[in-house]
Amino acid sequence: MMENGAAALARRETVIEVSLGPRSYPVIIGEPLLALAGQQIATIVPGARVAVVSDENVAALHLAPLKASLVEHGLYLGEAVVAPGEASKSFPVLATLCDRLLELGVERGDCVLAFGGGVVGDLAGFAASILRRGVRVVQMPTTLLAQVDAAIGGKTGIDTRRGKNLIGAFHQPSLVLADVSVLATLSPREFRAGYAEVVKYGLIGDAPFFAWLEENRDAIFSASGAARRQAVETSARAKAAIVAEDEREESGRRALLNLGHTFGHALEAYAGYSSRLLHGEAIAIGMRLAFTYSVERGLCPASDAARVARHLDAAGLPTEIAAIPGPRPTPDALLRLMAQDKKVKGGRLALVLAHGIGQAFVEHEVAVPLLTEFLARECG
Length: 380
Ligand SMILES: NC(=O)c1ccc[n+]([C@@H]2O[C@H](COP(=O)([O-])OP(=O)(O)OC[C@H]3O[C@@H](n4cnc5c(N)ncnc54)[C@H](O)[C@@H]3O)[C@@H](O)[C@H]2O)c1
Known about the structure:
Layout: H1 5-12, E1 14-18, E2 25-30, H2 37-44, E3 50-55, H3 56-72, E4 76-82, H4 91-103, E5 111-116, H5 118-130, E6 136-141, H6 144-150, E7 155-160, E8 163-170, E9 175-179, H7 188-205, H8 207-221, H9 227-245, H10 261-270, H11 279-296, H12 302-314, H13 331-339, E10 351-354, E11 360-363, H14 368-379
Parallel strand pairs: 2-9, 3-4, 3-5, 5-6, 6-9
Antiparallel strand pairs: 1-2, 7-8, 10-11
Helix pairs in contact: 6-7, 6-9, 7-8, 7-11, 8-9, 10-11, 10-13, 11-12, 13-14
The chain binds nicotinamide-adenine-dinucleotide.
């Protein structure tokens, strides 16, 4: 007898609920999942036909089984494929994408399926939020970074020359489907970059998880075995809980997810959002800077900051500004870029700092002279 969909789900997949009242949705984690997408979308996003947005790399590697599943369930409208990379999070690409989605015939009841890393998720999610004044979006993240972070929580957007993610919208997905097996085709560098966001959950509020990562890093980096999936699940659960508590980053809880990001976004902008520095690499340097700065301010034990740097180093992630290829930024240039950050309120800079591993907090009024001195030393 054929197994029904619900039984298959119960057997193979982990389901994490993002509890947001009428905007609640499941994050389904499993391997493999692509061939089940049609069935799950038909169940969880009833009535929607599907336009897939992907990038050239992901489409070439993984689109075929997904498309077959959508076609099998009569859901497939077509696909829009963008160039890979951060440069696609731009107004020109957004305009072309919206036009393509209209050409495919996406109507109000249909959905956009974002099939790719955080770039595709942010871009396609934002397009869905404005297309016909908002259509539903399903996130199918294919990078480690997107599975543990970007695909969950509804932040969507694009970059401008004034900074990252400055144009965007909150647009919660109707469903997140994370197939851990597709991570096997990710380049080692992209996997490492995503790992920085996994580490972040330990550093923010889960010291035992950080200790588990210290023990299990090799197993997580090897594609076989249960550790990789466990790392994805623990991270996704942490993200879901924070989003449920503070959907729009109002109470401060969600702001903790920005540990390392104010430094990191400034470094990314300085490096021109290029392959000189991937997002996750920038976050690794940023998290190390946040811990070192916390130590210098007398807020955090030096031994915790050393443990953080050691673990990121061991994972092959950069922890120093000097590790970024090309010319070094000046402290003033970095400060200017940090001031563009969305964490600035009334001209005052906020930073996520730490009292120790697993004890992050938001400092709302950062003393700029101290920070400038610190950056001068770090920029060398
Ligand atoms: N919305 C949010 O809450 C949030 C959170 C964190 C990061 N982000 C955003 O995410 C973006 C970074 O995302 P990313 O690191 O996933 O980068 P990405 O989307 O650029 O993907 C990285 C590279 O991996 C390739 N790729 C993707 N999946 C693959 C697979 N399974 N096999 C082989 N190659 C694959 C892509 O084509 C690309 O070249 C940034 O723009 C960042 O701002 C958003």
